[in-house]
Amino acid sequence: EVDTYTSELYPVQNLSPDGMFLESVKSIPMLWFTPTAWAGKVLPHMQNYGTHHINTISAGGEFRYAAIVEASYISAHGSAEMDAEADADFLFFFSADAEAHASASASEAFRQSLSLRQVVCNGGNGKCNANSTATYDAWVDSVHKYPWVLSARYTPNYALVPTTENGIVLEAVTIAYLAWQGVQKLMEELTAIRAVLKMYAGLADPLCSFQKIGTCSSGSTSCTQAGSTGDPAKLIPIVRANAQKLYNQTDPLHAQFQTTLGARNSSMQVDGWLPNATSWVQAVKDMAAVVFSMPTVLQCTGYADMSTDPICQLFGCKDHVCQTAPGVKCGDCEAKVAASCAWASVPIPRKLLSPLFDRPIYI
Questions:
Q1: Is the pLDDT confidence value at 145 over 80?
Q2: Pair (248, 307) in one structural domain
Q3: Is residue 155 part of a domain?
Q4: Do 260 and 325 fall into the same domain?
Q5: Per-residue pLDDT tens for 43-89?
Q6: How far apart are CA 45 and CA 124, in angstroms?
Q7: Which residue has the higher pLDDT, 358 or 93?
Q8: Is 363 among the domain residues?
């Protein structure tokens, strides 16, 4: 971080809410949880004033350097050595600058093992990502003119009226409002997860499609050779079964969300279900960790014997598919090659490729 400073914008003890805010708070009735009061008083207040205000910020510049190194290299070196290598590579990043380049001592093996080097800067002129210490220095000098908000402290608005009856009502309303927003968001995330699972549960078996060269038509056949990521013929059924099982496991939680959200038609109170919120969040998080895990693409190749294809036979291709130049008919080919094809799956979450789940993620 560069030129960082913290500023308390609005000390709570010195901050006085304006009259319109206080009038809006007073207008919220004690029976705020009725659908009529919620729609007529609570929602307008939240839309106008929100739930929190910022009273402290930390601003300045932020420079982030990240080096992602192959696991084999990391396991072969200690943490102290890795830190030193990363520091040296950071200097080597400014290779256009002779002084920095000369002082860099990261081993060539370290640099070759890098799969990704990323530099990001927030604040300033935004031009820190360049191979020059002069450019970096210019970015540092510009931070005080164009600071970035690094962090902020949020205070609930009900803290402005803490000891009044209206403050107690506003606190209850704020908790309920955030809770309803949260469960609605969880429902949206769960719906997206279920849609993805439904797609994977319906994956078709791998079918190798190819274009027969020349005048021969398109066709398809089974894959016979699996790619390096595994045999799709064995893995696709596992993916389907895992996806369907996990989809079924989401049914109880989905039903609870529907029941909870449906209760808003009679009352906006949250006391009855709020204790479940923590477990709900964790359940959706666990499901998302599976559905959105690192993707893998399955691949395979196939072969088709075209000796019985009537069109290919017509043009003299009795044993193989013809290898021809553009515009040349199949029977005019100078060479005949085997008909081969390749198949690739959509990206599949890696955790869906594992053996079937033995227990529900959510109970």
A1: yes
A2: yes
A3: yes
A4: yes
A5: 999 999 999 988 888 888 888 777 666 666 566 666 666 666 666 66
A6: 37
A7: 93
A8: no
- Enumerate long-range contacts of 142-148, CB under 8 Å, 24 or more apart: 143/2, 143/3, 143/60, 143/61, 144/3, 147/3, 147/59, 147/60, 147/61, 147/123, 148/59, 148/60, 148/61, 148/62, 148/122, 148/123, 148/124
Domain containing 194: what range? 183-353
Report if residue 127 sits inside a domain. yes
335 and 197 part of one domain = yes
pLDDT in tens, 39-48: 999 999 999 9
User: Rg (Cα) of the chain, in Å, rounded?
Assistant: 31
Q: Is 327 helix (H, G, I), strand (E, B) or coil?
A: coil
Residue 177 placed within a domain:
no
What is the pTM for the complete model shown?
Answer: 0.68
pLDDT per residue as tens digits for the range 283-336: 999 999 999 888 889 988 776 555 555 655 665 554 444 444 444 444 444 444
Could you give the number of structural domains in the chain?
2
Same domain, 140 and 203: no
